[in-house]
Amino acid sequence: MRKAVIAFLYPSHYPVSGGSSMHGYFLARELSALGYRLISFPRTPDGFSKCLPYRPWFVLWAILTSDLVYLRISPEGKSTRLLKWLKLLRKPHVVELNGPSDELRVTKGYTLEQIEQMDRELATSLTAARAVITVSEVMQRWCKQYLQLEHVYVIE
Predict the structure, then answer these.
(1) 126: which strand partners?
(2) Among candidates 73, 77, 85, which has minimal Cα distance to 117?
(3) Planar angle of CA 51, 53, 58, nearest 5 degrees
(4) Cβ(7)–Cβ(66) under 8 Å?
(5) What is the pLDDT of residue 5?
(6) According to CATH, what is the number of the domain 5-154?
(7) Which of 19, 82, 104, 118 is least surrounded by Cβ atoms within 10 Å, i.e. has the fewest?
């Protein structure tokens, strides 16, 4: 039986430089060890996935030919557009959310209105995801309570 192909859209998983890249690296390594075939876009080959240049046509090819898309996004959301396309394509996808949007008030100076708009778009975009992955129970509660999402899991 053929193992599933995963389009691993996790831009910073390799080379490992700490934080999210460490989480992405170990996740990709474990998925590969379980026999899943990964298509990824790191700056340098990671040694266990099919590495392609980060160009739109390669990303599109990876999405269209994979069985599942794993996507890491930020609440501020250029990736929310991609989530809408995945929904239109009926492509199964799992989304890793890296932090709550309200921290953007402090880190980037967004207004409360901008944060609320971001959250509405994020909640709408994430409803089609098979699962939402967070890195803490606090994020999991935020996703369930504030964004009203059901399939939210913590992977530390």
Answers:
(1) none
(2) 77
(3) 95
(4) yes
(5) 97
(6) 3.40.50.2000
(7) 19
- Give the residues of the chain that fall short of pLDDT 70: 1, 13-16, 18-20, 77-78
How far is 19 from 151, CA to CA, in rounded Å? 24
Please state the φ and ψ torsions of residue 152, each to the nearest 5 degrees: -120, 130
Long-range contacts at 52-61 (CB < 8 A, ≥ 24 apart) = 54/11, 59/7, 59/9
Residue 65's alpha-carbon distances to 2, 4, 27, 68, 129, in angstroms, are 14, 11, 21, 9, 18
Q: What is the pLDDT of residue 135?
A: 84
Taking the chain, what is the end-to-end CA distance rounded to the nearest angstrom? Answer: 30
Distance CA 115, CA 92 (A): 27
Structure-token pair, residue 153: 């899991």
Tell me the three state secondary structure of residue 121. helix
Phi first, then psi, for residue 14 (nearest 5°) are -155, 140
8 A C-beta contact, residue 41 and residue 52 = yes
Give the closest residue to 121 by CA, choosing from 100, 140, 147.
Answer: 147
Residue 32 token pair? 């590969």
